[in-house]
Design goal:
Blueprint: E1 2-8, E2 11-18, E3 21-24, H1 35-39, H2 45-51, E4 63-65, E5 74-78, H3 82-86, E6 99-103, E7 108-110, E8 114-116, E9 124-125, E10 128-134, E11 150-157, E12 160-161, H4 162-165, H5 172-175, E13 181-189, E14 199-204, E15 207-213, H6 221-229, E16 239-241, E17 265-270, E18 274-281
């Protein structure tokens, strides 16, 4: 099941994205009205039943919102694909623990929303990622039970100002600018796909730049959820960006580093979820 948030008549609406189009759940009595309400349902099948026979909207006709509006935490995993590590240092070993850093709500921008260049940087990069959406409070969870706390998966682009990122050993200043976390277009509920059966692709202006299988993560999703839950409590709507494959701009030869500029289109694609697309603006 695909759920999304979109704007209609100036108000946020929860939608069910079916093959034939988007059902506006806000028009159906008894249906959840927000993504948070949908997370609280014990049986998501009730949404499908309520949506049967309802009229639909064409996806291209709606203004997308981020599927989660204000997550308490946006946690990002660095260096979670071996080829991505090797494109920076061929002899580098695997990290013994996940590299974790954060973004903030100011970084969120929806599908078809703008990515704005940071005036303090001249080296903007893309990072296609699969994002985990937590569905219920999660603390000290064993790995074998971790997936039961996952509501679903969405797409993210960890836009990065590389020159700012490398100024210090802490990455926040290179990761946290406004619109540096495109998110969407929808959430695919966890019962619809296996965490290790997704093919992640990243594009710049229609050119395939990144590709990896979710099964290739150094730290797989159940491990990440469990590991983080032993450090901090995860709450409904929290996001875990699970890392990017090789193929980023900063991993290219120095003369071929075509940093993002105004007018560039960046896309993240997973077949089961869809495509997250954003245009770079100044």
């Amino acid at each position: 099941m695909k759920l999304l948030m979109f704007e209609r008549d100036g108000r946020p609406c929860l939608g069910l994205w079916k093959d034939e189009g988007i059902v506006d759940l806000s028009l159906i009595p008894g249906a959840p009205q927000t993504m948070e309400e949908a997370m609280g349902l014990d049986a998501l099948g009730v949404i499908e039943k309520l949506a049967e026979g309802q009229s639909t909207l064409a996806p291209q006709s709606v203004r997308f919102l981020t599927p989660v509006a204000r997550p308490e935490k946006i946690l990002c995993i660095g260096l979670n694909y071996k080829p991505h590590i090797e494109e920076f240092e061929k002899s580098a070993g695997l990290p013994p623990y996940p590299v974790i850093f954060g973004k903030f709500n100011n970084a969120l921008t929806p599908h078809n929303g703008p990515v704005r260049l940071c005036s303090a940087s001249s080296m903007h990069d893309y990072e296609a990622e699969i994002a985990v959406v937590i569905g219920k409070e999660c603390r000290d969870v064993p790995e074998e039970k971790a997936l039961s706390y996952v509501f679903g998966y969405t797409l993210a682009n960890d836009i990065t100002a590389r020159d700012l990122q490398s100024r210090t050993g802490q990455w926040t200043q290179g990761k946290g600018s406004d619109t540096f976390c495109p998110l969407g277009p929808c959430i695919l509920t966890a019962d619809s796909v296996s965490y290790d059966a997704m093919t992640l692709e990243g594009y710049k202006n229609g050119e395939l730049r990144q590709k990896a299988q979710s099964s290739e993560m150094i730290f797989p999703i159940p491990f990440l959820v469990s590991y983080i839950s032993k450090i901090m409590t995860l709450r409904p709507g929290d996001l875990i960006l699970t890392g990017t494959p090789s193929g980023v701009i900063s991993g290219r030869p120095e003369g071929k580093r075509d940093w993002l500029k105004k007018g560039d289109r960046v896309s993240v694609y997973v077949g089961q979820i869809g495509c997250l697309e954003n245009t770079v603006e100044e």
